[in-house]
Amino acid sequence: MKKSVNIAFTCIGRRVELIRCFQSAYKQLALDGAIIGFDGDPLAPALQLVDRSYVVPPVHSGEYIPALVQICKSESIDVLFPLIDTDISALANNRNRFEQNGTKVAVVSSEADSITADKWLTKQFFERIRVPAPGTWLPENFPAAEAGYPVFIKPRKGSAGKNVFLVRDSKDLAFFQSYVPDPIIQECLPGPEITSDVICDLNGRLLAVVSRQRLEVRWGEVSKGVTICDKTILDACSTIARELPAIGPVTVQCMLKDGHPYFTEINARFGGGLPLGIAAGVDSPLMLLAGFAGLSVEIPPPGTYKTSLYMTRYDDSYFFDESEREKISSHRF
After folding, report:
1. Residue partners of 143: CB distance under 8 A and separation at least 6
2. pTM
3. Which of 8, 177, 252, 298 gets the highest tally of CB atoms within 10 A of its CB?
């Protein structure tokens, strides 16, 4: 049993609710430790909540990983979490550099990342493990006469709903094929869209699955939602977590058609709507922190949570003067 646990989050951005949930979990467990936040922008809101914040180089720069490794070593970070898709590959490919200094990375393997980062490979993965998925094609293989319109076109390696467009006819398709980078074409399902937070420990053991219907999305993140529980979705998420295999948190998305789920994406990180699942009784930060510290807590069976719990979000603000901004900016690597 560890007396304290230090954790860190990359690209912490607007994830204020997530940090508050982890702070609450520390208090409930009476566990000591620090939360460290990384971001490239000193004005990132969540940097205001963490115990210590660092302004780091851009994710794609050659200085990014060395900076994170150095900070994790100096701060004695036990576990590091990615919070955006572009970080997943960077951390997965450099896992050993962190682990050599005692920092575990809560992210899938590089092999699993290659599947989750590419929607075409994700579709093939779903087929291989017999999880239902919508019709998906590369542009050169799209059977327009058979599949019909409308369809969606999206980047194979996109995120946050960027460059996703509804294609209504062949003219639309010709235009967006030249606009969307490295695209795939996907069947247009009527919905609704269901997102499931799938939580595993660092050894891949499934801890929880909680599903929520997205009622409204803003900037690619849920702004209104409601918890649901569907055994077919639960079983499919359990299969996905086992076969991937998942490490730490992953987020699984599906669309419904005639009441049946068809799975579209896996994001190997915390989902933006995670606080709704926590409010419904799936306290994943508490489960994870307890596991890191070697503490015993009750893990309810997957699918055990309050359903029909609604969430609606609003903006809040932090205010600080120039000296405080300079203080945050000074922690720069």
Report:
1. 137
2. 0.93
3. 252
Of 61, 125, 153, which Cα lies nearest the Cα of 263? 125
What does the pLDDT look like over 287-313, one tens digit per residue? 999 999 999 998 988 889 999 999 999
Q: Give the span between the Cα atoms of 2 and 295, in whole angstroms.
A: 8
* Torsion sign across C-alpha atoms 122, 125, 131, 136: positive
Report d(CA 13, CA 10) in Å as an integer: 9
Q: Contact, 272 vs 247, CB < 8 A? A: no
CA 22, CA 5: separation in Å to the nearest integer? 12
Q: Which CATH class for the 7-116+191-330 domain?
A: alpha beta
Ranges of each domain in the chain: 7-116+191-330, 135-187
Name the CATH topology of 135-187: Dna Ligase; domain 1 (3.30.1490)
245-292 tens-digit pLDDT? 999 999 999 999 999 999 999 999 999 999 999 999 999 999 999 999
